[in-house]
Amino acid sequence: MVTIADYRGKVKPDWCPGCGNFAQLSAISGALTDLKMDPKDTVVVSGIGCSSNMPEFINTYGFHGIHGRSLPVASAIKWANPKLNVICYGGDGDGFFEGTQHFFHTAKRNVDITYIVSDNQIFGLTTGQASPTSELGMKTKTTPDGNIEKPMNPLTLALTAGATFVARAFSGDAIHLKEVIKKGIEHRGFSFIDVFSPCVTYNKINTYDFFRKRVYKPEMDTKNFAKAYEMALQWGDKIPIGIFYDVQEESYEDRSPIIGSKSLIDQPLVQLKPEDLAEFL
Amino acid sequence: MKTDEVVVRVGGAAGDGVQSAGLIIAKVFSRSGLHVNTYNYYQSIIRGGQSWYQVRASDRPVRSQGDGLNILLALNRDALERHTNPMINEGGASPLGKTGVAIFDSSITDYKKEDVQYVSMPLGDIASRHGKNALMKNTVAIGATMAAIGMNFDTLADVIRDQFGNKGEVAEENVRAAREGYDYYLANFKKLGIALKTSNKKFYLISGGEAAGLGAVNGGLKMYVGYPMTPASSIIHFLASHEEQFGIFVKIPEDEISAINMAVGANYAGVRAMTGSSGGGFSLMVEALGMAGMMEVPLVVYEAQRAGPSTGLPTKNEQGDLNLVLGASQGDFQRIVLAPRNVEEAFYFAREALNLAEKYQTPVILMSDLYIAEHYETVEKFDLNFKIERGKLAQPGIKDYKRYEYTPDGISLRALPGTPGLMHNEDSDEHNEYGDVVSDAITDPALRAKSMEKRMRKLSAYIKSMPPTPTYRYEDAEYAIVQWGGTQGAVEEAVDALREKGIRAGVVEINRPYPLNPDIGKLLSGKKKIIVVEGNYSGQMNKLLRSEFLVKTELITKYDGENFYPGALAEEIEAVIKR
Ligand SMILES: Cc1ncc(C[n+]2csc(CCOP(=O)(O)OP(=O)(O)O)c2C)c(N)n1
Ligand code: SF4
Ligand SMILES: [Mg+2]
Predict the structure, then answer these.
(1) Alpha helix segments (H runs only) across A111-207
(2) Where are the domains of chain B?
(3) How many domains does chain A have?
(4) What's the whole-model pTM score?
(5) Rounded to whole angstroms, what are the CA distances from B479 to A120, B473, B493, B530, B573?
(6) Is the CB–ligand 1 distance for residue A124 below 6 Å?
(7) Which of A94, A171, A202 gets mutated to test ligand 1 (max ligand atoms within 8 A of its CB)?
(8) How far apart are CA B192 and CA B138, in angstroms?
(9) pLDDT one digit per residue (tens) for chain B, 579 residues
(10) B115 near B98, Cβ under 8 Å?
(11) Is B392 exposed, middle or buried (0-12, 13-18, 19+ CB in 10 A)?
(12) Within 13 Å, how many C-alpha atoms sit on residue A150's CB side?
């Protein structure tokens, strides 16, 4: 039987004590354990950032690539071997700045992977610069007079792109976080989970307290796109978390005549025969 | 005039059917057991401009577009003027000489009636008697062309039927139109004094892009991911149109950055995957190329050069990306660069690239250029026997598995995801033998040095196993001419011309630009002159050879977007030799 200990990597996380990423490491490990998945069957793919160090700390297959590019890697791993459970993990800078186009198009394709973003509204690893989700007016190393860009909304972007599972969770609510991640993994198609993940070192605004005061878990009509979109726009004193949208559609793999039928990795290699060249005669 | 070869040129505007007419002519020659080489001069527009398609055929191998022109098939007035004008300025192409024949529609009347033999024919009228499609006048002209050269009509009829997918009436209309063009020519004009020895040899008429695609399939390719860019499109078009036949997954993602990361992901998961582009797209791939080097993930990138810099000349040829390919990505890591010299070699190198990538767990760049990728030539045989070698793969049961073990040959066992018990992390950060990151809090500089050395020694076996560098007429050569990539045909034919004049030149042909075979140093030593010929401005191969082998060289370049022409090149080489 798989236990949570099976997922414990031999390298200890080097995140700052209190960092929101710890809760996500536990939640992912817990979700995989609850789902009785063998560690060998999961690949955690990430980019670069504090959060992206995740594959080093979890005992699955890990691919720690380059900044912003985890989603194409993860998609192709799934296409090569659909039996693998592919989790893509990274930061808000990684996913919503450097990798925005991949985020949009992977959602649009409905690739059957789970994408979890540790959204701390700041660049952590590079010691505190404004990110695409940093709040207007926020002072950071690169915005000493306050951020003059409005933050983007990852949820509405995912919905617009065509994601079939869109959710938000909070590192300060570990049980709920784990349940959302479980649902995301189980979902067939692209699941996107934006996680409020306080950076205790560089973000003094969006702290655990900030979110504890604001997050709430409304009942949501997860089959209704317009309602999901409306809920996703809610921001301010009350910020909803939970699953906003969850519908079943054919995944990219289902639609492909090549990978849908059988894993590429299991397909025998084509033996070229002289007849295959006849079109050139 | 050479009588054992023919050069036919079809000229017109984009949209006139220049290329399809050229391809039909090429196919008639190859079906007649002749060697064929084609050349496509075109622009990046869908209608208008001036393009031409040249077909050269002979019973002996024809290795370039060649010099000279025997038959011009002018699809408009501009083409007639342009290609009969001795001042033609199309990058070295010959105008139609006195012995040549120009075939055109008799609606064109205002031409100078001197210098060349004009065959004014009612192409349009004949065509309209057989069908409604205006482009059928091209078929009539092709019929006339075949009559002028003395080719068998039945072969043309077969090719036309194939071309129209044996679609009953349309195909037959075209065959009848061609027949009338053929007969009209014979009744009214003289045959050219050309004697081509047709044969029963079976030739494949194929482009370098298609050959590379076929080679990759032969080499076990299962996924090709690329964003279209001329001239890397011919390979993706070929593979996409054979997706189900060959079980290949072909994907066009959002950009080239995604494409290369996908190719890396698939290879990591154990499926042979390839990406490709021209220089522009390759430039976007640079960061991920280094990632594959650092993470030791097998990867094949197809890089088909066109004239740069930047968007450059999208439909023109150049060999200007060698520096880019050699220097792409930060830091030092090993890469293998292959540069096939012709269409046939593109096939063999594509499949070899896939083996090398897995054997050495490092990126392999398969170079090409617009000329190789897009032009058609005949290939007599493809040897389809090929052993797929997947390199060192880890099997379950290994105790204390180290993905990046410091082995003597620098290559370690690769565990594919899903393998029981061998979970590990692969990292673009510097790492130890297990794959654990050592970069963020680096406390062991010696370990970093060891990891670096491990990666950098991995090609020593490859260098030892490299086949000798190919040469041409080199045994008694006093002058070394060095070429690389698609200039092979023109350079060899230039050397043939020099030999006829008693100049003992021979060619060293560099088809593996990196790592360079150490035998090149020996080949170049003791020559009266070393003359490097390449299709770029600065002489990128020239600089590489100078720095690797400390040789004194002379340089001949061409950077107008067109190929070298053997005749003009022979003169240039001779001038350098006499300098
Ligand atoms: C191409 C590239 N650009 C920039 C960097 C430097 N860099 C590393 S992480 C990072 C941002 C990290 O922010 P985020 O993705 O939000 O992750 P966090 O550290 O907050 O978890 C940057 C800019 C890089 N590694 N690669
Ligand atoms: S800097 Fe912020 S995000 Fe990075 S480990 Fe520390 S708390 Fe976490
Ligand atoms: Mg961040």
Answers:
(1) 154-161, 174-186
(2) 5-188, 206-379, 471-578
(3) 1
(4) 0.97
(5) 66, 11, 15, 6, 10
(6) yes
(7) A94
(8) 20
(9) 678 999 999 999 988 899 999 999 999 999 999 999 999 998 877 777 889 999 999 999 999 999 999 999 999 999 998 898 877 777 888 888 888 899 999 999 887 766 678 999 999 999 999 999 889 999 999 999 999 999 999 999 999 999 887 668 899 999 999 999 999 999 999 999 888 999 999 999 999 999 999 999 999 999 999 999 999 999 999 999 999 999 999 999 999 999 999 999 999 999 999 999 999 999 999 999 999 999 999 999 999 999 999 999 999 999 999 999 999 999 999 999 999 999 999 999 999 999 999 999 999 999 999 999 999 999 999 999 999 999 999 999 999 999 999 999 999 999 999 999 999 999 999 999 999 999 877 778 999 999 999 999 999 999 999 999 999 999 999 999 999 999 999 999 999 999 999 999 999 999 999 999 999 999 999 999 999 999 999 999 999 999 999 999 999 999 999 999 999 999 999 999 999
(10) yes
(11) middle
(12) 4
Partners of B118 in the beta sheet? Answer: B102
Domain range holding A210? 4-280
Q: Looking at the complex, does the CB of residue A259 fall below 8 Å from at least one CB of chain B?
A: yes
Residue closest to A222 by CA, chosen among A189, A248, A196: A248
Q: Do B223 and A264 touch (CB under 8 A)?
A: yes
A225 interfaces chain B, CB cutoff of 8 Å: no
> Do the chains contact at B265 and A75, CB–CB below 8 Å?
yes
Q: Which one is the CATH code of B471-578: 1.10.8.60, 3.30.450.40, 3.30.1160.10, 3.40.50.920? A: 3.40.50.920
CA of A129 to the centre of ligand 3 (A): 9
Distance CA B221, CA B213 (A): 9
Name the DSSP class of B398.
-
- Which residue, among B66, B57, B37, B58, has the nearest Cα to B567 in the 3D structure? B66
What is the SS3 assignment for A188?
Answer: coil
Q: Which CATH architecture has domain B206-379?
A: 3-Layer(aba) Sandwich (3.40)
Q: Does A212 touch chain B (CB under 8 A)?
A: no
The alpha carbons of chain B give a radius of gyration, in whole angstroms, of 26
Q: Which one, of B70, B18, B74, lies nearest residue B42 by Cα?
A: B18
Q: Which CATH number fits domain B5-188: 3.30.530.20, 3.40.920.10, 1.10.3210.10, 2.60.40.10?
A: 3.40.920.10
- From atom 5 of ligand 1, which residue's Cα is the shortest distance away? A67
Domains B5-188 and B206-379 share a fold: no
CATH number of the domain bearing residue A103: 3.40.50.970
Distance CA B417, CA B428 (A): 17
Cis peptide preceding B314, ω within 30 of 0: no
Q: Which residue owns the Cα nearest ligand 2 atom 8? A: A19
Task: Note whether A127 contacts B: Cβ–Cβ < 8 A.
Answer: no
Q: How many residue pairs bridge chain A and chain B with CB atoms within 8 Å of each other?
A: 179
